[in-house]
Every structure is written in C-alpha cells, then in structure tokens.
Amino acid sequence: MVNKILKSFFLFVAFILIQSTSFAQCAMCRASVENNVSNGDTSIGAGLNMGILYLFIMPYTIAMVIGYLWYRNAKKRKAKFTFQGDKF
C-alpha cells in the first residue's frame, strides 16, 4: 500500500515538473503581456507565467497534505481498534 502511495506521489510530482514549462494565461493577462512586449518590455511575461503556475499548484498541494493526514489518522485509528480487539 505504501509503495502504491509513493508511486502515485512521484507520478504527481513528475507531472507537475513537466507542466512547469507550459504557458497558461487568461485573456486579460495575455493582452497585458502582448501590450508590454510590443512596447519592448519582455520581462513581465516570464514572471506572470510562473505566478499563474504557482497559483495553480497550491490547491493540489493543500489537498495532498490533507489527504495524507487523513490517511495517517485513519491508519492509526484502525491500528488502535485492532489492538483493542485483541485484548478481549
């Protein structure tokens, strides 16, 4: 079971690292970047893309942490009930 969880985690991390090279922007952000590029400023585009990817990753990271804590507590609860059941 732990091996399956580790494989899933590493697969998730691999997808995140692969997706870090994508450039996702909303229509307003794209218009702002295109306007700045046409005026000669190209530095804002890279920072904007990294900011969007950072905001995209945070909810999934929080969900993974909550899922892990839930799994760990459920495992402890199950071990506690199994151990008490052996006493009777």
Shape: rod-shaped
Q: What distance separates the N and C termini?
A: 28 Å
- Secondary structural class: mainly alpha
Main sheet record? none
Instruction: Name the beta content range.
Output: under 5%
Low-confidence stretches: none
Order of helices and strands: HHH
In brief, what are we looking at here?
By secondary structure, the chain is mostly helical. Helix content is 85%, strand content 0%. The chain contains 3 helices and no strands.
List keywords for this structure.
mainly alpha; 85% helix
Helices and strands, with pairings:
Blueprint: H1 2-19, H2 27-38, H3 43-87
Plain-language structure description:
- The chain is an all-alpha fold and 88 residues long.
- The protein has one domain (2-87).
- It contains three helices and no strands.
- It has helices spanning 2-19, 27-38, 43-87.
- It is rod-shaped.
- The mean pLDDT is 78.
